[in-house]
Hints:
This is PAC domain-containing protein. The protein is α+β, with helices and mostly antiparallel strands. It has ten helices and 13 strands.
Amino acid sequence: MESALKIHNKIGKIFSENIDDLIFILNEKFQCEYMNFQYFSEKIQIDDFIHQEDIKQVKKLFKSIFKIGVGTGEAQIKLEGISFNWYEIKGRSFVDNEDNKKKILLICRDISKFKQLEFEYKKSQARFGVITNTLPEIKYWKLLVSKEGIVAVQKTREMLELVIDNIPQLIYWKDTNLVYLGCNRNFASKNKLKDPSNITGKTDKDLIWVKNNLDYIQKCERNVIYNDKPEFMVIESFISVHGRKEWYEINRIPLHNLEGKVEGVLSTYEDITIRRDAEQKLQESEEKYRSILDNIKEGYFEVDLKGSFTFFNNAFSELVEIPKDDLIGINFQDFVNEENKIKIFTVYNELYSSGNPINNFQFQFIRKN
């Protein structure tokens, strides 16, 4: 039991430290029955976390998820002590076996930095649009705009270029025909271009990095343009020109003119190959760890916060004389009398509250036969 509690505590810590998404479970009154970032004793309305401007559309989304089973959306969400951030919300309905009531599971991913990038681009477009739509030739605009206006526009452009050229992601933007309009310095370097300006007018066939993935990338970008719908934090793998498998977290955002018409697509690629390799090694390590547990003679099991079995080894299955397939989901309370039930509950509650392992804990359980 000591070993089981230590390992369970370790796994729980690894999980909590490596998930960035917010997770909610809501009932039909839109009350939070579970969230992975805050503990609470009473049910809290989801309204407490949603920006006032977004509450109406978010509730509409939740009703839709309850009705049709799935749904996605975006909203500003605020955590305790942190200002509002933009999140992509993905939801799915399910029936809770505990009370047989329909509920929804929400997974919310932070997309604030991409929203900010989209906002800055639109802001820049608005400033330049007044000039470019008024003058027949952009090269003459300095003749008609005040010195202060010229300085302001140049400063905005320089600031934007400075930011884009100094972030680690690969960034580029294309028109609706997928002809390159620009890119950042990292993307230019990836394609052996001396300067980002050299990419203007080129197509994917002129570049080296996408040759093995050309058709797929163009298909994804055309979908974003055609549907006028962004894709955030999509995980994809590509084969590099050197034959290596590289993993990227990708965002594809439709670009609009002042009238709201789609005029192109902005794509960002973050190389997460090292992270994926680490995740793969962790998964292999956990599989090895579980394989070891399955072959030890001592009984080992794990339960969720409700006391239902989520994992156990062969030795424990044999000990309670129940096949492994039948044991999953059964509650530990089915194996103990009232005295031991209270004893176990007290220890589990202390463990959960303190986060510290408890040693030399003993209890009695009832076998099937």
